[in-house]
């Protein structure tokens, strides 16, 4: 596998698909419905299908249903290599609406040592989408569909979906701009708006953005700076980060404040893990703060407070997410509109893998409705 050559093939296919958005490269309602159902779900199946097709395009002698070297036949191959080495950059470069990470580490496709044939039973939430994927691979394996045409059609479908999503966001943004009023929302209104946003599904990234927006807006007044946020899917062990948000003093690179977000109640185990990070850090952390969207247990809060002496002066605290936001907005009352704009910007800049399209549209709709004054 020549990675650079395959990337050039992918870029060429992308250009061809992008200039032919009104044209479908394959015929047959059943086939096209399979492609649409797979892409619309933004499922790991999309990445798996693309990786298998790449393997077939790169080496026509392989069986696209055998993307596992554990199968140990002459026509098997490593789909994960095509996925990680070629598709990850391609998907990111063109902002395509599918999994940002490899399909081969998802539970449904992780440990398999047999062909992805139609009679294979795979456990997953979207069984119909999985079966549609197996059908398409079977069509290619039996020579009824050309792998290159199928991959081009998948790319075309993803481009159309991406463009439609961007158009919807732009329309909502335009509505918000037209709705803009010289009389900004009150601090309480903003808290209520974000409370409703947190009530949506798949919001685990939002508490990070709530706190990050506060520091970005007020950092010049605080004499502190926020370090760039790490990917939502990256573990702290991979990035070397102490938490979800790291704060330094202006003109210094030493982390003095750490925030860790929890969509559940903070436990004593969480505190102990934080103590381990503090002890292993070379410089002294002043504050290690948990931001929780759940109820704060008094016993756990007391345990956190008691660690001040143990750590030699690092204070561990547990704060309520919306309570933190409310206090910030009242303290920096004149920055409240800038805060809301900054939070919106952070939400819209996040990849769909961490803040999905529905969540982005939900915020803009909530803001538009909140700012509509009778």
Describe the structure.
The protein is an alpha/beta fold and 374 residues long. The chain has two domains: 3-163, no CATH class; 181-370, Trna Endonuclease, Chain: A, domain 1. Helices cover 55% and strands 7% of the residues. It contains 16 helices and five strands. It has helices at 3-18, 29-40, 44-58, 79-93, 107-110, 127-141, 147-179, 187-198, 206-222, 236-239, 268-280, 298-305, 307-310, 321-331, 336-349, 357-370; strands spanning 224-226, 245-249, 255-262, 287-292, 315-320. It has a five-stranded mixed beta sheet, with helices on both faces. The N and C termini lie far apart (63 Å). The mean pLDDT is 92.
Brief description of this entry?
The protein has helices at residues 3-18, 29-40, 44-58, 79-93, 107-110, 127-141, 147-179, 187-198, 206-222, 236-239, 268-280, 298-305, 307-310, 321-331, 336-349, 357-370, and strands at residues 224-226, 245-249, 255-262, 287-292, 315-320.
Q: How many structurally independent domains?
A: 2
The overall strand count is 5
Unreliable spans are none
CATH architecture of the largest domain: 3-Layer(aba) Sandwich
Largest sheet report: 5 strands, mixed
Question: How much of the residues is beta strand, in percent?
Answer: 5-15%
SSE order, one letter for each helix or strand: HHHHHHHHHEHEEHEHHEHHH
Radius of gyration: 24 Å
Distance between the termini: 63 Å
CATH topology of the largest domain: the name is Trna Endonuclease, Chain: A, domain 1
Shape: globular
Q: Strand arrangement, largest sheet? A: 1-2-3-4-5
The number of distinct helices, counting runs of at least 4 residues, comes to: 16
Label the structural class.
Answer: alpha/beta
Which CATH class of the largest domain applies here? Alpha Beta
On the 0 to 100 scale, the average pLDDT is 92
